[in-house]
Amino acid sequence: MKIRLLSVGKPRAKDAIRLHDDYAGRLEKLGVGYETLHVPEVRAGGRFSDDHVKEREARALLERIDRDRSKGRLIALHERGELFSSRKLAGLLEAWSMPEATFVIGGPLGLHERLLERCDRSWSLSPLTLPHELARVLVAEQLYRAVTILRGIPYHK
Fold first, then answer.
1. What's the predicted TM-score (pTM) here?
2. How does pLDDT run across 4-47, given as a tens digit for each residue?
3. Could you state, in order of their start, the residue ranges of all structural domains in the chain?
4. 3-class DSSP state of 38
5. With contact defined as beta carbons under 8 Å apart, do 118 and 71 qualify?
6. 1-to-13, 32, 133, 143 alpha-carbon distances in Å
7. For the chain, which residues score pLDDT lower than 70?
8. What does the DSSP 8-state code read for residue 105?
9. Cα–Cα distance between 33 and 27 in angstroms, integer?
């Protein structure tokens, strides 16, 4: 099982980084290949419209995906995505991550439609808007929880 988490913007909040890395380490201890990548955030406002910012970020994300992804699923983290229970996610993760899955988190403005069209699936963590650093933590924790469910490890109870 191989999982990539690709996001816009380099994480800066030390507490969020620490929490994410804790779950990443737990995944790795379970034998899951887990990698985090990011592309630079394009600053909104000024000379760029919101749509132009999202389009430029989508271009950078797609370039990174095309460079790093040989085959596998592409899953967008998006407000219009599907909500899953942890058990449902576990079943999906098993299918998505063989041989690999890439999860994509957008910047403050979200993901551009061009990128969403390339994705195999969209996953919503919540109907709430979340900072992308917190979304990284939630994704890592839910992926860890899904793997423990798949392996019968009692973490999820």
1. 0.93
2. 999 999 999 999 999 999 999 999 999 999 999 999 999 877 77
3. 2-156
4. strand
5. no
6. 28, 5, 24, 11
7. 68-71, 156-157
8. E
9. 8
**How many CB atoms within 10 Å of residue 59?**
15
Domain 2-156 CATH assignment equals 3.40.1280.10: yes
Contacts of 34 (CB under 8 A, 6+ apart): 2, 3, 4, 5, 24, 27, 28, 140, 143
What is the distance between the alpha carbons of residues 135 and 137, in angstroms, rounded to a whole number? 5
Place of tokens 């910047």: 107
CB under 8 Å to 120, separation ≥6 — which residues? 73, 74, 75, 96
Q: Please classify residue 97 by burial: count the beta carbons closer than 10 Å to its beta carbon, then call 0-12 exposed, 13-18 middle and 19+ buried.
A: buried
Q: Which residues pair with 122 in a beta bridge?
A: 76
